[in-house]
């Protein structure tokens, strides 16, 4: 085991010799080895053919320089930075912000934030949440980074139109233009069209990188750089992780092993749910980002041959120790349908000593002299053993500390694992046809040209039967 590893993917808790018959056997993995090799080859092929671009993102020095220049300009000119974007155009930004910035970043006095803007990621169009944003930012001092790969997503576009009008009212059309940045596909989409017309600064999203794989593009990098995250270190961590994906032998490639083990637990042991439980509050939004990555990439009706397969493991997010007091009962004694992926951290930035006091009081006396760090680690280790004793598969991704390098490596490793898993299921992990139907109905309802048939279909759908609606 490398001493300076950026992460250690620990699979001890998924094997039968540790947890009994709910686990997998090493022979199961051995049997899967040829398919893992093929999955590795197929992902490499997709990469070399330019069909998937996420592996190559850590090496784009030109983009990094472009982002840093724009970020410095933003920091000079603005007090608030808002991301208009949803799904893959927001979750990576949020994950990086929570992991690598001060946990109360926006509440810090401006000077302690290095005079950097406050950061906001609404990631929703709930009108109350959007309106409330205006209570905590001054529009005149705010820049909006409108991120959309397709450039056409209704939620982002509606938010943009709303904010733009407010800015025009306040500042006039000419000045309002200076409050937008557009991050989008370089070749197509309505956002690109608008940005060119209005003269907004633009950052690119490569055509071969989909939203949920875009955290290392300008999508994730600009907000990170504006808020002071060392994006070079982040990308360096991702690049180092990339090296560990070179072997086609699963024993030496953490992402390939992770893909194989989750595939086996899902398809052979019925673990339909994967809980990512972060024993680091900083990494809790990595679990949220991962939910989208795993769900949207692997939840598919059709395989590559067009056959119905209806695959996918449902990813859930959980926080240790908080959810020991909320979810753990279910994980321990509920149905045998889950595998738990722990995120653990060896060293925290702070060490908090628990003072000795009330020695004769049972539940206070024993804590004195320990640290809160020890308690946190003890609870995590205790939960791992308790889950194992109950026959619950657990794997753990262990980080030495939460740093830009380790977070870069973690996100890249989870992206690679997802790509390999897609090949094992023989599905396309890089599209999302299942979200189109709902979108098209919404377009129809709102009268978008070309979706009249969807409006008709919607209007013909059975109306709610009032007898099935019960009021309180
Ligand atoms: O991963 C994806 O492709 C999606 O979840 C998108 O990120 C999301 O739908 C937002 O799309 P867009 O960036 O095109 O506005």
List the helices and strands and how they pair.
Blueprint: E1 8-10, H1 16-19, H2 26-48, H3 61-77, E2 80-84, H4 91-100, E3 118-120, H5 127-136, E4 142-148, H6 154-171, H7 173-176, E5 180-185, H8 190-198, E6 202-205, H9 218-226, H10 231-243, H11 254-269, E7 273-278, H12 284-298, E8 300-302, E9 308-311, E10 314-319, H13 328-333, E11 338-345, H14 362-365, H15 372-389, E12 394-399, H16 404-425, H17 436-445, H18 452-460
Parallel strand pairs: 2-3, 2-4, 4-5, 5-6, 7-10, 7-11, 11-12
Antiparallel strand pairs: 1-12, 8-9
The structure holds 5-phosphoarabinonic acid (PA5).
Mean pLDDT: 97
Number of helices: 18
Named once each, the bound ligands are: 5-phosphoarabinonic acid
Strand order of the largest sheet: 1-12-11-7-10
- What fraction, in percent, of the residue positions are helical? 40-55%
Assigned CATH architecture of the largest domain: 3-Layer(aba) Sandwich
Percentage of residues in strands: 5-15%
Domains (count):
2
- By DSSP, the count of extended strands is 12
Return residue spans where pLDDT drops below 50 for at least 5 consecutive residues: none
- Give the N-terminus to C-terminus distance in angstroms: 60 Å
Silhouette: globular
């Amino acid at each position: 085991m490398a001493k300076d590893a950026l992460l250690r993917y620990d699979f001890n808790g998924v094997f039968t010799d540790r947890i009994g018959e709910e686990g997998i056997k090493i022979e199961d993995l051995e049997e899967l080895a040829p398919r893992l090799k093929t999955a590795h080859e197929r992902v490499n092929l997709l990469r070399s053919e330019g069909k998937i671009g996420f592996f190559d993102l850590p090496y784009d020095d030109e983009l990094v320089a472009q982002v840093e220049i724009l970020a410095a300009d933003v920091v000079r000119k603005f007090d608030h930075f808002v991301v208009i974007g949803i799904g893959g155009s927001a979750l990576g930004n949020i994950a990086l912000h929570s992991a690598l910035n001060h946990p109360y970043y926006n509440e810090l006095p401006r000077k302690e934030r290095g005079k950097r803007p406050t950061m906001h990621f609404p990631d929703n169009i709930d009108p109350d949440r959007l309106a409330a944003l205006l209570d905590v930012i001054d529009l005149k001092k705010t820049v909006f980074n409108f991120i959309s790969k397709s450039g056409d997503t209704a939620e982002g576009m509606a938010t943009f139109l709303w904010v733009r009008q407010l800015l025009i009212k306040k500042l006039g059309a000419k000045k309002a233009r200076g409050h937008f940045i557009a991050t989008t596909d370089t070749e197509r989409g309505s956002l690109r069209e608008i940005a060119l017309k209005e003269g907004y600064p633009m950052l690119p999203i490569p055509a071969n990188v989909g939203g949920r794989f875009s955290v290392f593009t300008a999508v994730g990098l600009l907000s990170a750089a504006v808020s002071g995250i060392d994006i070079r270190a982040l990308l360096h961590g991702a690049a180092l992780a990339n090296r560990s994906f070179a072997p086609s032998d699963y024993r030496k490639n953490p992402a390939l092993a992770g893909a194989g083990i989750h595939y086996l637990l899902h398809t052979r042991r019925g673990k339909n749910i994967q809980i990512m439980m972060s024993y680091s509050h900083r990494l809790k939004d990595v679990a949220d980002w991962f939910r989208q990555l795993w769900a949207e990439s692997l939840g598919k009706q059709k395989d590559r041959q067009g056959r119905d397969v209806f695959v996918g493991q449902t990813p859930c997010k959980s926080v240790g120790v908080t959810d020991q007091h909320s979810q753990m009962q279910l994980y321990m004694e509920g149905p045998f349908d889950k595998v738990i992926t722990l995120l653990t951290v060896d060293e925290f930035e702070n060490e908090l000593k628990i003072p000795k006091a009330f020695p004769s009081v049972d539940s206070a006396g024993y804590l004195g002299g320990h640290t809160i760090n020890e308690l946190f680690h003890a609870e995590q280790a205790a939960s791992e053993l308790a889950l194992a004793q109950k026959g619950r598969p657990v794997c753990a991704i262990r980080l030495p500390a939460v740093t830009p390098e380790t977070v870069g490596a973690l996100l890249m490793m989870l992206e690679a694992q997802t790509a390999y898993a897609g090949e094992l299921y023989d599905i396309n992990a890089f599209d999302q046809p299942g979200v189109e139907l709902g979108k098209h109905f919404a377009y129809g309802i709102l009268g978008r040209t070309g979706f009249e048939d969807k409006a008709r279909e919607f209007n013909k759908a059975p109306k709610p039967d009032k007898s099935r609606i019960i009021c309180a």
